[in-house]
Fold this sequence. Notes:
The longest helix has about 50 residues. This protein has a six-stranded mixed sheet with strand order 1-8-7-11-9-10, with helices on both faces. It has a five-stranded mixed sheet with strand order 4-5-3-2-6. It is built from twelve helices and 13 strands. The protein is an alpha/beta fold and about 400 residues long. Among the domains are: about 170 residues, Rossmann fold (3-Layer(aba) Sandwich); about 100 residues, no CATH class. Helix 2 packs antiparallel against helix 3, helix 4 crosses helix 6 and helix 9 packs across helix 12. One iron/sulfur cluster binds next to helix 8 and helix 9.
Amino acid sequence: MALFSKGIVLEQRKEPALSREIVQLINEEKPELLFIPPEVEGTPDLEQLITIAERAMIVDERDGRPLAEKLYAASQKQLFAVVADAVDDEPYVSSQLGVVLHHGESVAEALKLCANALDISKYCILAYKNVTDLTIKLPSRINTVKVIHIYGKYPAENRAEALFGTHQKKLIIGANALLHLYRAVKEYRIQTTCFVTVSGNCIANARNMELPIGTPVKDVLDFCGLALDPSRIVLGGSMTGQTITDLDTPIDVTTRAVLAFEDAAVLRKFNCIGCGRCVTACPQGLTPTLIYKHVVAGKYDGAEILDATHCIECGTCTYVCPSELDVSAKVLQAKKYFLATEQEHIAQKDKLLENRRYAWERMFRDFFAAAKKIGGLFSKKSSGKAVKVKVKK
Ligand code: SF4
Ligand code: SF4
Protein backbone atom coordinates (compact mmCIF):
# COMPACT_ATOMS: atom_id res chain seq x y z
CA MET A 1 0.00 0.00 0.00
CA ALA A 2 2.74 2.40 1.04
CA LEU A 3 4.57 1.69 -2.23
CA PHE A 4 1.78 3.35 -4.21
CA SER A 5 1.35 6.27 -1.84
CA LYS A 6 2.43 9.80 -2.71
CA GLY A 7 6.01 10.87 -2.17
CA ILE A 8 9.19 9.99 -4.06
CA VAL A 9 11.58 7.08 -4.26
CA LEU A 10 15.05 8.20 -3.19
CA GLU A 11 18.30 6.27 -3.17
CA GLN A 12 19.11 6.10 0.50
CA ARG A 13 22.92 6.00 0.34
CA LYS A 14 23.14 5.08 4.03
CA GLU A 15 25.48 2.13 3.59
CA PRO A 16 28.89 3.81 4.06
CA ALA A 17 27.96 5.37 7.39
CA LEU A 18 25.86 2.48 8.68
CA SER A 19 28.41 -0.22 7.94
CA ARG A 20 31.03 1.43 10.19
CA GLU A 21 31.15 1.50 13.98
CA ILE A 22 29.98 4.71 15.66
CA VAL A 23 33.05 6.78 16.49
CA GLN A 24 33.17 8.83 19.68
CA LEU A 25 34.86 12.21 19.52
CA ILE A 26 35.92 12.96 23.08
CA ASN A 27 36.46 16.43 24.45
CA GLU A 28 39.48 15.99 26.74
CA GLU A 29 38.83 19.32 28.47
CA LYS A 30 35.27 18.40 29.46
CA PRO A 31 35.10 15.29 31.65
CA GLU A 32 31.96 13.17 31.70
CA LEU A 33 29.34 14.82 33.91
CA LEU A 34 27.24 12.87 36.43
CA PHE A 35 24.10 13.89 38.33
CA ILE A 36 22.81 12.96 41.77
CA PRO A 37 20.12 10.33 41.14
CA PRO A 38 16.83 10.04 43.07
CA GLU A 39 16.43 7.00 45.30
CA VAL A 40 15.04 4.16 43.20
CA GLU A 41 14.20 0.64 44.29
CA GLY A 42 13.85 -1.68 41.31
CA THR A 43 12.58 0.02 38.16
CA PRO A 44 11.89 3.76 38.33
CA ASP A 45 8.27 4.92 38.51
CA LEU A 46 7.04 7.86 36.44
CA GLU A 47 8.07 10.55 38.89
CA GLN A 48 11.54 9.06 39.31
CA LEU A 49 11.97 8.64 35.54
CA ILE A 50 10.98 12.27 34.93
CA THR A 51 13.43 13.39 37.64
CA ILE A 52 16.20 11.32 36.05
CA ALA A 53 15.49 12.71 32.55
CA GLU A 54 15.40 16.24 33.99
CA ARG A 55 18.64 15.90 35.96
CA ALA A 56 20.38 14.27 32.99
CA MET A 57 19.16 17.19 30.84
CA ILE A 58 18.08 14.89 28.02
CA VAL A 59 16.73 16.58 24.90
CA ASP A 60 14.90 14.62 22.23
CA GLU A 61 16.70 14.91 18.89
CA ARG A 62 13.49 14.60 16.85
CA ASP A 63 11.79 17.76 18.17
CA GLY A 64 14.32 19.50 20.44
CA ARG A 65 12.03 19.14 23.48
CA PRO A 66 13.30 18.10 26.93
CA LEU A 67 12.47 14.43 27.52
CA ALA A 68 11.24 15.15 31.07
CA GLU A 69 8.67 17.59 29.67
CA LYS A 70 7.53 15.05 27.07
CA LEU A 71 7.12 12.30 29.68
CA TYR A 72 5.13 14.59 31.96
CA ALA A 73 2.88 15.75 29.09
CA ALA A 74 2.34 12.11 28.06
CA SER A 75 1.29 11.19 31.61
CA GLN A 76 -1.55 13.71 31.35
CA LYS A 77 -3.06 11.97 28.29
CA GLN A 78 -4.70 8.64 27.56
CA LEU A 79 -1.85 7.13 25.57
CA PHE A 80 -2.10 4.11 23.32
CA ALA A 81 1.59 3.39 22.65
CA VAL A 82 5.18 4.50 23.22
CA VAL A 83 7.31 4.45 20.10
CA ALA A 84 11.07 4.74 19.55
CA ASP A 85 11.77 6.72 16.37
CA ALA A 86 14.65 5.44 14.23
CA VAL A 87 12.95 6.17 10.91
CA ASP A 88 15.74 8.26 9.31
CA ASP A 89 13.96 8.49 5.95
CA GLU A 90 16.21 11.12 4.33
CA PRO A 91 19.11 10.00 2.09
CA TYR A 92 22.54 9.72 3.80
CA VAL A 93 21.10 10.22 7.32
CA SER A 94 21.32 7.24 9.68
CA SER A 95 22.17 8.72 13.08
CA GLN A 96 19.08 7.16 14.73
CA LEU A 97 19.20 3.90 12.81
CA GLY A 98 22.92 3.58 13.60
CA VAL A 99 22.20 3.93 17.32
CA VAL A 100 19.51 1.21 17.10
CA LEU A 101 21.86 -1.13 15.21
CA HIS A 102 24.83 -0.57 17.55
CA HIS A 103 23.11 0.11 20.91
CA GLY A 104 19.75 -1.56 20.24
CA GLU A 105 19.47 -3.33 23.60
CA SER A 106 19.96 -0.09 25.57
CA VAL A 107 17.37 1.72 23.42
CA ALA A 108 14.90 -1.15 23.86
CA GLU A 109 15.49 -1.22 27.63
CA ALA A 110 14.89 2.54 27.97
CA LEU A 111 11.73 2.24 25.84
CA LYS A 112 10.43 -0.48 28.18
CA LEU A 113 11.19 1.73 31.20
CA CYS A 114 9.13 4.56 29.68
CA ALA A 115 6.23 2.25 28.81
CA ASN A 116 6.33 0.70 32.29
CA ALA A 117 6.38 4.11 34.03
CA LEU A 118 3.46 5.32 31.88
CA ASP A 119 1.63 2.01 32.37
CA ILE A 120 1.34 1.31 28.63
CA SER A 121 1.56 -2.21 27.25
CA LYS A 122 2.12 -1.31 23.59
CA TYR A 123 5.59 -0.19 22.53
CA CYS A 124 7.84 -0.67 19.51
CA ILE A 125 10.83 0.65 17.60
CA LEU A 126 10.25 2.13 14.13
CA ALA A 127 12.91 1.92 11.43
CA TYR A 128 12.85 2.85 7.74
CA LYS A 129 13.37 -0.12 5.45
CA ASN A 130 13.64 1.52 2.07
CA VAL A 131 13.16 -0.99 -0.74
CA THR A 132 15.79 0.36 -3.12
CA ASP A 133 19.29 0.15 -1.72
CA LEU A 134 19.41 -0.64 1.98
CA THR A 135 21.05 -4.04 2.24
CA ILE A 136 21.81 -4.03 5.96
CA LYS A 137 19.53 -6.45 7.72
CA LEU A 138 17.31 -4.84 10.29
CA PRO A 139 16.31 -7.05 13.20
CA SER A 140 12.62 -7.75 13.69
CA ARG A 141 12.99 -7.77 17.48
CA ILE A 142 15.51 -6.32 19.91
CA ASN A 143 15.41 -7.64 23.44
CA THR A 144 11.74 -8.71 22.99
CA VAL A 145 10.80 -5.25 21.62
CA LYS A 146 9.22 -5.39 18.16
CA VAL A 147 10.96 -3.43 15.39
CA ILE A 148 8.38 -2.25 12.85
CA HIS A 149 9.81 -1.61 9.40
CA ILE A 150 8.34 1.30 7.46
CA TYR A 151 8.55 0.63 3.74
CA GLY A 152 7.90 2.81 0.72
CA LYS A 153 8.54 6.28 -0.56
CA TYR A 154 9.95 9.37 1.11
CA PRO A 155 8.66 10.94 3.36
CA ALA A 156 8.06 8.05 5.75
CA GLU A 157 8.20 9.98 9.03
CA ASN A 158 4.57 11.11 8.59
CA ARG A 159 3.47 7.51 7.98
CA ALA A 160 5.24 6.55 11.20
CA GLU A 161 3.17 9.16 13.04
CA ALA A 162 -0.02 7.68 11.61
CA LEU A 163 0.89 4.17 12.76
CA PHE A 164 -1.85 2.55 14.93
CA GLY A 165 -4.26 5.14 13.48
CA THR A 166 -4.10 8.93 13.65
CA HIS A 167 -6.73 9.03 16.42
CA GLN A 168 -4.59 6.90 18.76
CA LYS A 169 -2.38 9.10 20.92
CA LYS A 170 1.23 7.97 21.18
CA LEU A 171 4.45 9.22 22.65
CA ILE A 172 7.25 9.17 20.06
CA ILE A 173 10.77 9.45 21.46
CA GLY A 174 13.94 9.65 19.38
CA ALA A 175 16.17 6.57 19.59
CA ASN A 176 19.14 8.74 20.61
CA ALA A 177 17.24 10.32 23.51
CA LEU A 178 16.34 6.80 24.68
CA LEU A 179 20.01 5.77 24.66
CA HIS A 180 20.81 8.84 26.79
CA LEU A 181 17.94 7.89 29.14
CA TYR A 182 19.39 4.39 29.51
CA ARG A 183 22.81 5.86 30.38
CA ALA A 184 21.16 8.25 32.85
CA VAL A 185 19.26 5.44 34.62
CA LYS A 186 22.21 3.02 34.75
CA GLU A 187 25.24 5.32 34.97
CA TYR A 188 23.76 8.70 36.10
CA ARG A 189 25.31 10.38 33.06
CA ILE A 190 24.24 13.90 32.03
CA GLN A 191 23.69 14.24 28.28
CA THR A 192 26.73 16.07 26.92
CA THR A 193 26.88 14.42 23.51
CA CYS A 194 24.77 14.00 20.39
CA PHE A 195 24.76 11.62 17.42
CA VAL A 196 25.28 12.79 13.83
CA THR A 197 25.85 11.20 10.44
CA VAL A 198 28.79 12.67 8.55
CA SER A 199 28.34 11.84 4.89
CA GLY A 200 27.82 13.17 1.34
CA ASN A 201 29.78 12.72 -1.88
CA CYS A 202 32.77 14.77 -0.59
CA ILE A 203 33.35 12.89 2.67
CA ALA A 204 36.27 10.45 2.57
CA ASN A 205 35.11 8.30 5.51
CA ALA A 206 31.36 8.60 5.94
CA ARG A 207 30.25 7.45 9.37
CA ASN A 208 28.03 7.98 12.36
CA MET A 209 29.66 9.84 15.22
CA GLU A 210 28.98 10.67 18.85
CA LEU A 211 30.17 14.22 19.48
CA PRO A 212 30.25 16.66 22.38
CA ILE A 213 27.34 19.09 21.94
CA GLY A 214 28.71 22.31 20.48
CA THR A 215 31.49 20.73 18.38
CA PRO A 216 32.16 23.02 15.38
CA VAL A 217 31.34 21.58 11.94
CA LYS A 218 34.95 22.03 10.75
CA ASP A 219 36.28 19.63 13.45
CA VAL A 220 33.91 16.94 12.22
CA LEU A 221 34.92 17.47 8.58
CA ASP A 222 38.60 17.35 9.57
CA PHE A 223 38.05 14.08 11.43
CA CYS A 224 36.25 12.32 8.55
CA GLY A 225 38.36 13.89 5.79
CA LEU A 226 37.30 15.46 2.51
CA ALA A 227 37.82 13.54 -0.72
CA LEU A 228 36.57 16.51 -2.78
CA ASP A 229 36.21 20.20 -2.15
CA PRO A 230 32.55 20.62 -1.14
CA SER A 231 30.42 23.29 -2.75
CA ARG A 232 27.68 22.87 -0.17
CA ILE A 233 27.65 21.91 3.52
CA VAL A 234 24.24 20.94 4.85
CA LEU A 235 23.24 20.62 8.50
CA GLY A 236 20.32 18.25 9.00
CA GLY A 237 18.76 16.03 6.37
CA SER A 238 19.60 16.11 2.68
CA MET A 239 15.95 17.01 1.94
CA THR A 240 15.11 19.30 4.82
CA GLY A 241 18.50 20.49 6.12
CA GLN A 242 19.99 23.96 5.92
CA THR A 243 23.01 24.96 3.90
CA ILE A 244 25.62 26.71 6.04
CA THR A 245 28.60 28.84 5.11
CA ASP A 246 30.20 29.25 8.55
CA LEU A 247 32.19 26.11 9.42
CA ASP A 248 32.40 27.24 13.06
CA THR A 249 28.66 26.56 13.39
CA PRO A 250 28.21 24.36 16.48
CA ILE A 251 26.47 21.01 16.24
CA ASP A 252 23.53 20.52 18.60
CA VAL A 253 21.26 17.67 19.66
CA THR A 254 18.81 18.17 16.78
CA THR A 255 21.45 18.42 14.01
CA ARG A 256 21.41 14.68 13.15
CA ALA A 257 23.67 15.03 10.07
CA VAL A 258 26.55 17.00 8.57
CA LEU A 259 26.56 16.48 4.79
CA ALA A 260 29.15 17.75 2.33
CA PHE A 261 28.25 17.82 -1.37
CA GLU A 262 29.98 18.77 -4.54
CA ASP A 263 27.06 19.91 -6.67
CA ALA A 264 27.07 23.69 -6.82
CA ALA A 265 23.55 25.05 -6.76
CA VAL A 266 22.92 26.25 -10.31
CA LEU A 267 21.56 29.74 -10.17
CA ARG A 268 19.21 29.43 -13.11
CA LYS A 269 15.84 31.12 -13.14
CA PHE A 270 13.04 29.18 -14.75
CA ASN A 271 9.33 29.67 -14.49
CA CYS A 272 6.84 27.09 -13.36
CA ILE A 273 5.95 25.05 -16.45
CA GLY A 274 2.79 23.67 -14.84
CA CYS A 275 3.95 20.03 -15.12
CA GLY A 276 2.15 19.12 -11.87
CA ARG A 277 4.97 16.90 -10.54
CA CYS A 278 4.93 18.69 -7.20
CA VAL A 279 1.19 18.07 -6.89
CA THR A 280 1.57 14.37 -7.72
CA ALA A 281 4.41 13.92 -5.23
CA CYS A 282 3.20 15.98 -2.26
CA PRO A 283 2.42 13.46 0.53
CA GLN A 284 -0.06 15.88 2.06
CA GLY A 285 -2.15 16.17 -1.10
CA LEU A 286 -1.43 19.92 -1.40
CA THR A 287 -1.00 21.91 -4.62
CA PRO A 288 2.47 23.37 -4.01
CA THR A 289 2.60 25.05 -7.43
CA LEU A 290 -0.45 27.20 -6.64
CA ILE A 291 0.79 28.09 -3.17
CA TYR A 292 4.16 28.99 -4.73
CA LYS A 293 2.49 31.28 -7.27
CA HIS A 294 0.33 33.00 -4.62
CA VAL A 295 3.32 33.65 -2.36
CA VAL A 296 5.48 34.95 -5.23
CA ALA A 297 2.64 37.32 -6.12
CA GLY A 298 2.27 38.31 -2.43
CA LYS A 299 -1.33 37.02 -2.32
CA TYR A 300 -1.28 35.17 0.98
CA ASP A 301 -5.07 35.13 1.27
CA GLY A 302 -5.29 32.87 -1.76
CA ALA A 303 -2.64 30.55 -0.32
CA GLU A 304 -4.63 30.18 2.92
CA ILE A 305 -7.43 28.22 1.30
CA LEU A 306 -4.81 25.96 -0.27
CA ASP A 307 -3.96 24.64 3.22
CA ALA A 308 -0.30 25.66 3.34
CA THR A 309 -0.35 25.06 7.11
CA HIS A 310 -0.69 21.31 6.46
CA CYS A 311 2.78 21.19 4.86
CA ILE A 312 5.12 18.82 6.74
CA GLU A 313 8.24 20.52 5.31
CA CYS A 314 9.54 17.37 3.61
CA GLY A 315 11.04 19.23 0.61
CA THR A 316 9.66 16.71 -1.91
CA CYS A 317 8.10 19.41 -4.15
CA THR A 318 11.45 21.19 -4.50
CA TYR A 319 13.21 17.91 -5.24
CA VAL A 320 10.90 16.92 -8.10
CA CYS A 321 10.54 20.37 -9.69
CA PRO A 322 12.13 20.30 -13.19
CA SER A 323 12.33 24.12 -13.15
CA GLU A 324 14.49 23.92 -10.02
CA LEU A 325 12.19 26.25 -8.12
CA ASP A 326 12.46 26.26 -4.34
CA VAL A 327 8.77 25.45 -4.03
CA SER A 328 8.93 24.14 -0.46
CA ALA A 329 10.59 27.37 0.76
CA LYS A 330 7.61 29.37 -0.54
CA VAL A 331 5.10 26.91 0.96
CA LEU A 332 6.96 27.19 4.28
CA GLN A 333 6.84 30.99 3.99
CA ALA A 334 3.05 30.81 3.58
CA LYS A 335 2.76 28.34 6.48
CA LYS A 336 4.77 30.59 8.82
CA TYR A 337 2.71 33.59 7.75
CA PHE A 338 -0.60 31.86 8.60
CA LEU A 339 0.64 30.37 11.85
CA ALA A 340 1.87 33.80 12.97
CA THR A 341 -1.44 35.40 11.92
CA GLU A 342 -3.37 32.67 13.74
CA GLN A 343 -1.34 33.26 16.93
CA GLU A 344 -1.94 36.97 16.61
CA HIS A 345 -5.70 36.36 16.30
CA ILE A 346 -5.68 34.09 19.35
CA ALA A 347 -3.72 36.69 21.35
CA GLN A 348 -6.14 39.43 20.29
CA LYS A 349 -9.14 37.26 21.19
CA ASP A 350 -7.63 36.43 24.60
CA LYS A 351 -7.04 40.12 25.25
CA LEU A 352 -10.62 40.96 24.28
CA LEU A 353 -12.00 38.24 26.57
CA GLU A 354 -9.79 39.38 29.40
CA ASN A 355 -10.92 42.98 28.95
CA ARG A 356 -14.57 41.85 28.99
CA ARG A 357 -13.99 39.75 32.12
CA TYR A 358 -12.35 42.68 33.89
CA ALA A 359 -15.21 44.96 32.81
CA TRP A 360 -17.75 42.51 34.34
CA GLU A 361 -15.71 42.06 37.49
CA ARG A 362 -15.33 45.82 37.85
CA MET A 363 -19.07 46.30 37.33
CA PHE A 364 -19.94 43.72 40.04
CA ARG A 365 -17.36 45.16 42.43
CA ASP A 366 -18.76 48.68 41.97
CA PHE A 367 -22.32 47.37 42.25
CA PHE A 368 -21.68 45.55 45.55
CA ALA A 369 -19.69 48.48 46.90
CA ALA A 370 -22.68 50.72 46.16
CA ALA A 371 -25.17 48.11 47.49
CA LYS A 372 -23.18 47.75 50.73
CA LYS A 373 -23.67 51.41 51.43
CA ILE A 374 -27.46 51.14 51.40
CA GLY A 375 -27.95 47.38 52.26
CA GLY A 376 -30.99 45.29 51.23
CA LEU A 377 -32.08 42.51 48.90
CA PHE A 378 -30.72 42.50 45.35
CA SER A 379 -31.08 40.02 42.54
CA LYS A 380 -28.14 38.72 40.55
CA LYS A 381 -27.65 35.97 37.99
CA SER A 382 -25.79 32.83 38.99
CA SER A 383 -25.38 29.93 36.52
CA GLY A 384 -28.09 31.46 34.34
CA LYS A 385 -30.63 31.67 37.23
CA ALA A 386 -31.70 34.83 39.01
CA VAL A 387 -30.93 34.59 42.74
CA LYS A 388 -31.61 36.98 45.56
CA VAL A 389 -28.56 38.29 47.41
CA LYS A 390 -28.87 39.94 50.78
CA VAL A 391 -26.24 42.63 51.24
CA LYS A 392 -25.66 43.87 54.77
CA LYS A 393 -25.04 47.55 55.28
S1 SF4 B 1 4.14 21.24 -0.02
FE1 SF4 B 1 5.10 20.67 1.91
S2 SF4 B 1 4.33 18.59 2.32
FE2 SF4 B 1 3.96 19.00 0.13
S3 SF4 B 1 5.78 18.20 -0.90
FE3 SF4 B 1 6.17 20.37 -0.52
S4 SF4 B 1 7.30 20.42 1.43
FE4 SF4 B 1 6.33 18.36 1.27
S1 SF4 C 1 6.98 20.79 -10.22
FE1 SF4 C 1 7.77 22.89 -10.53
S2 SF4 C 1 7.35 23.35 -12.67
FE2 SF4 C 1 6.11 21.56 -12.16
S3 SF4 C 1 4.11 22.42 -11.49
FE3 SF4 C 1 5.34 22.19 -9.65
S4 SF4 C 1 6.32 24.19 -9.37
FE4 SF4 C 1 5.61 24.12 -11.52
